[in-house]
Amino acid sequence: MPTPAPDELPPGLTAAHASLLALRDRAETRRRLVTQASAPHTPEETQRLVQELQVHQIELEMQYEELLLAQAEAENARGQYVDLYEFAPVGYFSLSENGLIEQLNLCASQQLGAVRQRLVGRRFALFVAPAQRLEFGQFLARVFSSEASQSIELPLLHEDGTSFYGHLEGLRTAMPNGPQCRLAVLDVTARRRAADALAASEARFRKLFTDSSDAVVLLQGTQYVDCNAAALRLIGARHREQLVGQPAWMPAPEFQPNGQRTSDLFQATIAEAVAQGSRRCEALMHRVTGEEIWVEAVLTPIELGGTAPLVHILWRDVTAARAAAQRLHDSEARLSLALAASQTGVFTWDFGTNEIVGDARSQEVFGRQPTTGPVLVEDIKTSFHPHDLARVWGGLQAAIAVQGPLELSFRVVWPDDSVHYLHLAGRVVANGQGHATGLTGVLRDVTAQRAADEELHYKNLVLERMLQKLPMVLTRLRPDGTYLESVGAGLASVGILPGSLVGKNVHNIFTTVQPELARVLHGGQAEFLAQIPVAGGPPVAFQNYAFFDEQGHQVVVLAVDVTVAEQQRRQLQVEKDFTQSLLENSVDCIITLDEQGRIVVWNAEAARYFGLSTAQVQGQPLLDVLPDLGQYTEHELARALAGDRIDRFNRTFRQRPGRYDAHLVPLPPPVGNASGGVLVILRDVTERERLAEEATQQRLRQQQEVLAAILTTQESERKRIAEALHNGLGQLLYAAKLSLDKSAGQPPAPRESVRLLEEAIRTTRTISFELTPGILEDFGLRTALEALVKRIAPARLPVHLHLRGLEQRLPAQVEIAVYRAVQELLNNVMKHAQATEVEVHVAHEPKRLYVSVEDNGCGFEPAVLAAEPLVGIGLAGVRNRVALLGGELSVESELGRGTIISFEVDV
């Protein structure tokens, strides 16, 4: 029978299907020929027909193998497409003309922050920022009205309301149910934020450039390309055109005061700035009015990738600074003349004659009678202290060698053997040839000042060490309360920097000590404690001693940090209050006994236990207050007083129903005592014991339920196997028997019998595989799950299997439990869910196995399932298997929205 042409096929019949029908017709024809009576044919013809049938059988088997290969290739290609589509880093949506989401990939659901089942059928515009939904509608209209792709950037929303920027690419596609928009969404939030940050940075730079109080110009090549208002004010210009576009040396004279051409100076400075990264120079420039000004310029090149770099130039007017420097130079010259003419003592040393000529004061400081003539240097050297002579002479030689200034302090011995301290300051004088010819300087006797300085230095050193090492503060105030000084290590404890209070008024800072300070500021003295608040911490306590100085010009306040002592005092009180609060609010009965067994502490719970108040029992022996405790308790109490810890559990109350635990803890003895007391703690454990008993009963009930579920599951499995053997294998074997019985006395019909026997064998293998999947034991969970999915025909239920981390074998009990769980969940989907697609995920991570089965079926109410008891079949059986592995089954379902069943176990 020839295969019909594609255009002659009935509706819905593919070419492949037609080819299979043609092969079946040919096979039926051959079968009729074989089963016809062989009387009209010779044995040779019968043999030929049998051989032809065998040839056709081989051809059919070969064609069947080719079909299987083609099917495997098609499934592989489809799997690759699904992986590319599902795990692409771009969100893909399929939208209807109304903007409804008909299909989306995994990335798309992650972008919108929801599972796919919740997104399918919803309007995409709901995930667009409200202000841009009209713009999105216009974009969707352009997509459906054009053949070309359309793009747009919009702020989108996650399901939780948070936003992100998306780049949308849309293309219209013709589908059997009408046109559809294929929409690709790329998250461009990071790029948009970077662009916004760059724009903000440019705006800040422009504002800084424009509003800067310093004069700033931009130079490219040798021309100004931009400037700010401060630059125009600096040169006295009114409009930018007076500077922008002009050469760099425009607002300057042709030559600088040193004779260098201004254009050469500017070009050389720009070249050095480009080469070195920065350059500074000073130049004489002109205002627009012609006034000369000195300008300091700092040049910084900015590389823009062009041929000529952009140079950022900061101008500062240094005219006044240069004039001040000149005035300072003149002042120093006048000061030198004044020192030479003063009575301090001026001398001149001529290196050529080695003689010193000095005034009377310069000779008196050596203890000599003044003379008008010169004095030999050798005579002066005899007056130097032996320990200082080498140092002074070395300093003189060093100054002569460098022809620099000289300043020395040294000792001299007068003729009466008294030691005096002298200070020498001078400078080496050189001739026109640069040779040192002498030394000119001044001398001053600083003996008295040195003694006073040493005494003051010692006292200051002692005070400084005290202030540096001890938590003290020394403060000096004017009579009006203004700070003159405030130093000391104690300032750090209140977060005040040394010197930061100078110039401020004490009344505005420390208002809590105004009465004491007012008394001192009026000429008195006071000793008082001040609490200084500290931000973020407790106040600091200072003990202050304040008094007027002897001259009556200022107030001196010495403050010592006594915070630790105050804190210790407060801490003791807090600890006492806290201990008392713990005792009174404890849920346990707490009793403290002294070394003689008398009650010291009796908390509120003890009063509730025994119905006696603290006042009634304090100071009384415990056994006198509670005689019902008996001799046994007296013996235990004696052991506790001797140092043994006693613990007694689950005792029965005598005063009321219930049970309690008793703990007798020996307390350390006070200093000088041989023994301490005892801490008695009684804890009511009635409720704890009741809960423990209930928990034991609950575990027994759960174990009974699990055992019942296992037995029920076993019986159900046996029943299913029996039905499979009776209805499947038994029926096939019976049909084969009937086929063989019919052929009795007739020519054999092996084809039909063989087919029935092959079907019986296949059914037997199926039952065997379901009972004990040997592929699981031989090849592991990955291969077993793949085989399980292949056994479910795609026409019955398309199953998408996603496996990760199953390259290594897992424990046998885990593999069989997971396999049975997935098998049972897929059976439930096929029986009850009315689903068209199933996703199976099995992922193995270190020490953890994750399993989930997701379908798009009719769903159900999980609350109804949770209320049902364990019956040993369906989800209850899966829940039992997971519980035995230490996991917990999670069910997420909604009517009409599909079901997700997942669990995870430790491996």
Automatic annotation (TrEMBL):
Reactions performed catalytically: ATP + protein L-histidine = ADP + protein N-phospho-L-histidine
Domain Histidine kinase as annotated: residue spans: 720-907
The keyword Thylakoid is assigned to this record: no
Keywords noted in UniProt: Kinase, Transferase, Two-component regulatory system
EC annotation from Swiss-Prot or TrEMBL: 2.7.13.3
Domain PAS: 575-644
InterPro entries: HATPase_C_sf, HATPase_dom, His_kinase_dom, PAC, PAS, PAS-assoc_C, PAS-like_dom_sf, PAS_4
Top EC class of this enzyme: transferase
Pfam families noted in UniProt: HATPase_c, PAS_3, PAS_4, PAS_9
Protein known as: histidine kinase
Species classification: Bacteria, Pseudomonadati, Bacteroidota, Cytophagia, Cytophagales
